[in-house]
Specification:
Blueprint: H1 6-43, E1 50-54, H2 73-88, H3 94-97, E2 114-119, E3 122-127, E4 132-137, H4 145-150, E5 157-163, E6 166-172, E7 192-200, E8 203-211, E9 220-228, H5 252-258
Parallel strand pairs: 4-5
Antiparallel strand pairs: 1-2, 1-9, 2-3, 3-4, 5-6, 6-7, 7-8, 8-9
Length: 262
């Protein structure tokens, strides 16, 4: 017959429970550490979120290896007509008059800050300039050729995936309403781009390769570098109104002087 009171029996169970807890603590600690290690090993190389801004600005696309955009005869003729039209006013740079998106690769070199937002299945790039949002789908294939043809976008349709520590963004389905840069360099609706984005030290690098069988003799690449600015918040951007001061970005003042803007 057990003559111990309920309180005594409960007290007798405590040491056993404490021993079990003591045995489990190292297991819990190991699981926590392994989870942290996995997060550091997998998460950090893929973390490019935050606010970034170009380290310099050039109105003309700077081709990797130097030289000019490799236009074929049709491309050269169209480029010359566009430059002449921008000069005499018969063609307008609608990205600056109507705040439509700059398109790729022009927007990659813009001197205003932008923010990268990473969520499951999607990477969103929010540009302050013209309030442009690029949606990069990470968990679905590219749209069909039919959909790309009937639904062209200013910024194209983008899908992405990780190749090691590099985010690869493939974009197609562009309309023909944008320029490759601020000089009026044209492209066709057959253009496709592939961006390879990665962290290099504390900076972000975006190397874009442009292919356009209708206007180019061969693909070309350009490289853009950005500094991170956690202290910066994106501001509203409206055509015709005063915007943030970006004169500190190298190349901006020279470009304004060349356009006669001071």
């Amino acid at each position: 017959m057990n003559t111990r009171t309920p309180v005594q029996r409960q007290q007798g169970k405590l040491p056993a429970a404490l021993k079990l807890a003591a045995m489990l603590i190292p297991v819990w600690a190991a699981l926590a550490l392994s989870g942290s290690a996995i997060a550091q090993a997998v998460g950090q190389p893929h973390d490019i979120s935050g606010v970034w801004q170009s380290v310099k600005y050039s109105p003309k696309l700077e081709i990797t290896g130097g030289g000019d955009i490799p236009y074929n005869d049709k491309g050269k003729e169209l480029y010359a007509k566009t430059v002449a039209g921008l000069k005499d006013g018969s063609i307008r740079d609608e990205a600056r008059h109507l705040c439509v998106p700059d398109g790729i690769p022009r927007i990659l070199g813009n001197p205003y800050p932008f923010k990268v937002i990473q969520t499951p299945g999607q990477t969103t790039i929010a540009y302050e300039l013209n309030r442009v949002f690029r949606i990069v789908v990470m968990d679905k294939p590219q749209e069909s050729a039919h959909d790309l043809e009937i639904l062209p976008y200013y910024s194209g349709h983008s899908v992405g995936h990780w190749d090691g520590d590099t985010l690869v963004i493939e974009t197609a389905g562009f309309n023909e309403k944008t320029f490759l840069d601020a000089t009026g360099a044209p492209h066709s609706d057959q253009m496709t781009t592939v961006e390879r984005i990665r962290k290099v030290g504390r900076q972000l690098e975006d190397t874009v390769t442009v292919t356009d069988p209708e206007l180019l003799t061969k693909p070309f690449s350009a490289r853009f570098v950005y500094d991170q600015h956690p202290e910066v918040r994106l501001q509203d951007y409206v055509c015709g109104e005063q915007h943030r001061d970006i004169s500190q970005v190298p190349g901006v003042t020279a470009a304004r002087r060349a356009r006669g803007q001071g």
